[in-house]
Give the backbone structure.
Amino acid sequence: MPVLLEAAQAPTLADLLTYLQQQGLCAQLMDQAAAAIKIQGIGSLQQASAQEISFLSNPQLQAQLQGCQAAAVIMTQTVYDQLPAKPHFAAVIFEQPYLMYALLAQWFDQSRLNALPSGIHPTAVIDPSAQIGAGAHIGPYCVIEAGVFIGDSSRVGAGTVIGAHSQIGQHALIHPRVTVYHQVIIGARAIIHSGAVLGADGFGFAPHPQGGWAKIAQLGGVTIGDDVEIGANTTIDRGALDNTVIGHGVKLDNQIMLGHNVHIGDHTAIAACVGVAGSTHIGARCIVGGAAMVSGHLTITDDVQISGGTAVTSSITKAGRYSGVYPFAEHKHWQYNAAVISQLSQLRKRLRTLEREAELHKTKQE
Amino acid sequence: MPVLLEAAQAPTLADLLTYLQQQGLCAQLMDQAAAAIKIQGIGSLQQASAQEISFLSNPQLQAQLQGCQAAAVIMTQTVYDQLPAKPHFAAVIFEQPYLMYALLAQWFDQSRLNALPSGIHPTAVIDPSAQIGAGAHIGPYCVIEAGVFIGDSSRVGAGTVIGAHSQIGQHALIHPRVTVYHQVIIGARAIIHSGAVLGADGFGFAPHPQGGWAKIAQLGGVTIGDDVEIGANTTIDRGALDNTVIGHGVKLDNQIMLGHNVHIGDHTAIAACVGVAGSTHIGARCIVGGAAMVSGHLTITDDVQISGGTAVTSSITKAGRYSGVYPFAEHKHWQYNAAVISQLSQLRKRLRTLEREAELHKTKQE
Amino acid sequence: MPVLLEAAQAPTLADLLTYLQQQGLCAQLMDQAAAAIKIQGIGSLQQASAQEISFLSNPQLQAQLQGCQAAAVIMTQTVYDQLPAKPHFAAVIFEQPYLMYALLAQWFDQSRLNALPSGIHPTAVIDPSAQIGAGAHIGPYCVIEAGVFIGDSSRVGAGTVIGAHSQIGQHALIHPRVTVYHQVIIGARAIIHSGAVLGADGFGFAPHPQGGWAKIAQLGGVTIGDDVEIGANTTIDRGALDNTVIGHGVKLDNQIMLGHNVHIGDHTAIAACVGVAGSTHIGARCIVGGAAMVSGHLTITDDVQISGGTAVTSSITKAGRYSGVYPFAEHKHWQYNAAVISQLSQLRKRLRTLEREAELHKTKQE
């Protein structure tokens, strides 16, 4: 199903295993004769064709091995040992098949990227004071303002605008139609998807004595660590005075909104449609589920998991999982129960009254 | 109020009725003399001017007919029969006035589109291997990559980027500043609004044994059927291995997020700000209200309606309407009641205790 | 921490006070000798350097004055009078330090804007019928369609597209990569952030008798007042027949979605990720918290505050604060209590039964 390389361009299984070894993953091939097989792509157990490699990461799918058409399948030693017979595909043994799949998928995606046009497109408008690293690609209709620095081997997609004095580290992949405002610092190996807006003004106003709102101009910037991925149409506002700060290895899905002066700790992953209001600090290694919202000026400690759709309205000082979602139901059923919500406090009082009466009754009887 | 055509360009009422007939809608004009009236636009009963046509779709607005300035009004036979006298406007009789308004509005919008510049703008950067259909319009500063196919009579707005090997059917209307990544297939008559991003990477990571996250490169694509509309700043991610799939006639509002490998059935309509997490399948003819969220790996059957703001956290196997929204109230009132939420389980226990005591009491008395 | 001007470009404290006076703010300098100090930027009490001005708006931070490095600090007379000794910085006395900071920050941001390139970039594609005001800046790769009007001294950032017959008032700041569709009217001094889409089609469909949906072409426009700010990736849809209307001084954060024919009253401020469905009218001077959602066809009166995350599903006729958020908790705790939500109606009945029995019991005993 996924894009295949033509046979002429395809790597052998041995090539792929060598690449994995360079990444620190040592997989074992059960049948050395299979090393020469050409691998043109990756597929799921059910969809992979005879030119592709597949993987079994979920032991419950073991039954799918029988009908699998793939040339090779990654599996654990335990799974392999349970096979009823020598398999009809090349077995690749590795204890974390899903991780191995992840790195192989990267290899195939990188081979696609390597084939794309490179160099600086003649239509790119680049300020003479900007520094473009060696091997960097700047796509058509990009605008690179004064004092910008773009690291070696980075790709900037078509129509992207990089504001004055911003910096992008090496080996970054900026997709088309991204906006980076002025004075935004982005680390190495960033992946930024189309429509992302980094460094727009935070939302700050003071009531004006003559009525209406006086804008607080946002003078801070944004600092983004290494190995950060930012999804499509996600927005990260610049700080009011100090910077908004995104740690190393942070992964942000699409349509996330991070307000001014938010801090996100290293390796925290946030799913789509999450909003984090201004000045909130989220710790390291947190996982925030989709469509959650976090109020402003809070502190969420490290290693917190927040369920999708939860509104976090106070700080969290203890690691663990937190939730707060109204359970859905058939509409009529929901209506009946939701009507009681506005009486909960009264219900509790009525219950207390009954309890007191029961107490009194018991006391009398004794 | 809406944009009017100049009298010289305006159609007669007869022209419009002929157009509707071609669409399968046979309306009846009560006074044939009115056929020659020039119609320069469409307005509501209260706002339409003497050069415009209006419509009565909601019988409760019947009283507005009296003061209506419109040259012509679409109404049902029933409404017409109830008029106290021959009306001062031309009556157009049709059993579904709202549908007739819809098609007339399309006619006026199409006449605006027809007047826009067409052809391939000289600034468009188009790879020589791309195929551009007859009569297609490619706007200024578009970038069309290798192997792209664009169908006949399609319009691609300014600054839109279409990635390698993507396809767009005929008679599509792609507004300015859209991003279509590589290998995204879009059917005929698509309408895609500005800021939409189709085919960005799904959000997939495996924990890396050395800490942090290993990216799962997203090798699948996106397949979008015919007659699909996609709203402004909506994002649809590409699949991990297989494709994300949007059926025929699906209507998506603004700022919707569909994760990787989501499937949306034919003619389903989704309102703004909805998020659907990865691998969830939503059936045909569903209606999802605004700001609803749907968790990942679920199956929602056909003909389901989900109320706005509902968090759907488990699969739905039965057609019907589902809801789950916390009722809002004056802040103080909400606070009192919300404080009880964290004690609900305790309250239920206390109620059970009282019930047991009451049971016991009754038993004793018998 | 924030961007500093070089000493040669920096204003003196006296320059800044004169500017504030022109804005109607009369601050008092306690030590006239300080008037000549060069101010290169603004910093918080803890971060400001010796070349910067700072401010104390929150009396609880008074202790930070001692270690403050700033050249000058804005404070109230009351705070000044409580200082234990003549301060080591220049004291600037003003009763609203936060407002003064706001205007000073504007000054510094304006000085940055003034230094940006201006004029019409040769790559901008501008229809001959468009009118561009005196001193306006049109950035690279902008597309300005027929009949557009852009007011004096306005800036239009790179890659922005302005559709036919739209108007932008004077002194506007349109950031890069904004889309304004056709017939959108925007007032003076607008600030519109990157990725915003103004005037895309509202979400309107009629069920088609032959199955599926018939599009209601959206013939209305958008009217936006003076002094409006619109955040990154926010979308405002055009009206179906009449216009969508945004009042004067309205402030919209990022990723907000306003449906067709929404009206927002003057000086209302809406935080990020809010959705307002079609035809809803929100009054003047309202404040809507982040990620709130407002259903369609409602009327919210003036001076209403809606807490973040609240779903407003019915009209509000009385000013005040409204909330409706499910309280979050540790996951297990949430699970226990959420399980009771679906029994609330039953619980109320059981409670009522017990109350009746208790009544009966008491009656018997009397």
Q: What stands out?
A: Chain A has a mean pLDDT of 95. Helices of chain A lie at 13-22, 77-81, 97-114, 331-341, 344-365. Chain A touches chain B through 80 residues (CB under 8 Å).
